[in-house]
């Protein structure tokens, strides 16, 4: 495959920055299975596509043309390694050398080659010329019935043909000019000075005479350029009668796989990794709001992104470094319908065009998906209707230390997190992270009233006294904290640190950050995570930062913890369990 070496050449009066592909080996020897191209234009006329390819080839390297199927012909740059292609795309777009809606194309998108004219094989490293399909580029010139490019028009003729356009058609041209980066005013269908200037600039950039009035052929070329992203993914209208939904979908990228209520699963079949869910179920507002909550626990809905819920509809957008997902659903006449589109990150222009087309074409048909659909699928605690539940980077325990919902947890619980949540649902921010003492203080981003607040012990624990740690031993799998009993082995660490208490008990990693309570329910300290140093300590040896150290850390950030002022009788086991459960909270760290 051609490897991009360096680089950028502009006119002499500008910085020298343009890409060149340096290679002396044959293309077939360089192109591998990971070869990609950059599609910069698509035309429904072979003659127009050849002319467009020649225009680009006059100023850019690596230009070629391939039949796309369905009577369309694409002009592409490449082939490149994927990383090189991304860089070429970024720079050429920013310089205005190629349209802003240019995109990465893959081997399967390209059929027989029509430019340069000497080439007659399939894309890149096909070992032999590909058979010529009936609609391929090479068979077309022999057929007198195949339409060629539209005849040229004078400016006067172009104005006359332009006057026949409807307001909607004129607005579509403005939208296309805006998408190409030449127009930034309102979409009103009025061709004033701003629109004329943008037309002239588009004409000049595409090698036409800059008259400021688009001919019929140029208008067609502009709209084909605008629609190229949709063509590349095969936007096709489908009707799913079982789900009761019709809409346009990227049919080259997704294919129906199965029904598993309330979803119709359309899995990825192309190189992009696109996925689609159709949402269809009977229900009411409670069902709609429940769906809204459930979707946000799924791996396909990243935590970052805007969400909006109304009385009868909602939208959810989630983004991370891998994917962008968008969900819309609405309730009408006892039926909830919508869709989720999952798209790879870094392909935003094309994703936005596809999403807009899906939203505009979405139609509710009669009926909803059978609630029993997919009931015989293999069940898994980590799946919801066949979709993987999002899992945190790590889960630890914590406990409420004031009436505003402030939480104390272990320092390692919040290290390297992009987001921290309490009990899955509540966002929290890190108020302090005292790595030296191994504790962190969290504050909920929205008001939160805890069921119970820890009362810190005013004295030192007694040696060999019975204590319990309340924690999510299995990192939230059980849904509630549990108590682990043990004894106070020493009031200092093995190294003699008086801020740390040594415990004799066996705990799990998820217990770290949980409160250590005496039999009266007073908090003696916070369990520290198990040590990962060179010393291999017995399993039952664990440590807790003591109550006085906790009190100082909380006071330093303006939190005034409650204190146990006088001796209290020992609590029954059931009361201890109830108190510990109400003050202990699951702390989740997310990537």
What is the number of helical segments per DSSP (H or I, 4+ residues)? 11
| Main beta sheet | 7 strands, antiparallel
| Spatial order of the strands forming the largest sheet | 10-11-12-16-15-14-13
Please provide the count of β strands: 33
Poorly predicted regions? 1-31, 124-149, 378-383
Q: What is the straight-line distance between the termini?
A: 35 Å
Please state the overall shape, judged from the principal axes of the Cα atoms: elongated
Q: Helicity, in percent?
A: 10-25%
Cα radius of gyration in angstroms: 32 Å
User: What proportion of the residues form beta strands (DSSP E)?
Assistant: 25-35%
Average residue pLDDT: 83
The helix-and-strand class reads alpha+beta
